[in-house]
Design goal:
Number of domains: 2
Strand order of the largest sheet: 1-3-2
Number of helices: 6
Radius of gyration: 25 Å
Structural class: mainly alpha
CATH architecture of the largest domain: Orthogonal Bundle
Strand content: 5-15%
Order of helices and strands: EHHEEHHHH
Largest sheet: 3 strands, antiparallel
Length: 151
C-alpha cells in the first residue's frame, strides 16, 4: 500500500527545523493539531530552541500530511500510531495488511447496512407515493404515522 503525500508546499532544506506555527501552516492544520499529534506520540517530541520554542524537523510536515491522508481513507489516529511504531520491512507490511483487512471488513459491514437502509427508504417513498396518489391533499404521511405509532 502506498499513501502518496499530496504536497502543497516545498521545503527547501529538509534538515532544517521549523517552529510549530510553520509546521502547522505548511501542513494545513492548526497549531493545536500539531500539539495534539505530539501528545499522542504521532510526532516525535519536538526539541526546543534557546528561546523555548518547539522546533520540529522539516520532515514533520510530510508526516502530518500522511496522517491526514490516512485519516481521510478511514484510519483512526490509533491505527496510524500503530503504523509508526511497527518495525520496518515485513513486520510493517504485515501490520498494514492487517489494518487494511480490518478496514475492508468494516467497509463491507457499512455497505450492507446502507443497502438495508436504502430498502427501508425506498419502501417509505413508495408508501408516500401511494398515499399521495390515493388521498391527495387529505394525505397523512405514512412514514410519520408509523413513527407516531412506535412512540
Amino acid at each position: 500500500m502506498t499513501l502518496d503525500l499530496v504536497l502543497g508546499c516545498r521545503i527547501e532544506n529538509m534538515n532544517s527545523s521549523l517552529q510549530i506555527g510553520e509546521i502547522a501552516t505548511h501542513s494545513g492544520v492548526s497549531v493545536d493539531t500539531v500539539r495534539y499529534y505530539e501528545r499522542l506520540q504521532l510526532l516525535p517530541r519536538a526539541g526546543r530552541s534557546s528561546g523555548g520554542f518547539r522546533m520540529f524537523p522539516a520532515g514533520t510536515v510530510e508526516r502530518i500530511k500522511f496522517i491526514k491522508q490516512a485519516q481521510e481513507i478511514g484510519f483512526s489516529l490509533e491505527e496510524i500510531k500503530q503504523l509508526f511504531t511497527t518495525d520496518d520491512g515485513a513486520n510493517q507490511c504485515r501490520a498494514v495488511r492487517e489494518l487494511l483487512l480490518g478496514k475492508l471488513g468494516e467497509l463491507e459491514t457499512k455497505i450492507n447496512q446502507m443497502r438495508r437502509f436504502k430498502k427501508v427508504l425506498t419502501n417509505h417513498l413508495a408508501d408516500c407515493e401511494k398515499e399521495l396518489k390515493a388521498h391527495g391533499e387529505e394525505s397523512a404521511c405514512p412514514v410519520l404515522v408509523t413513527i407516531e405509532k412506535v412512540r
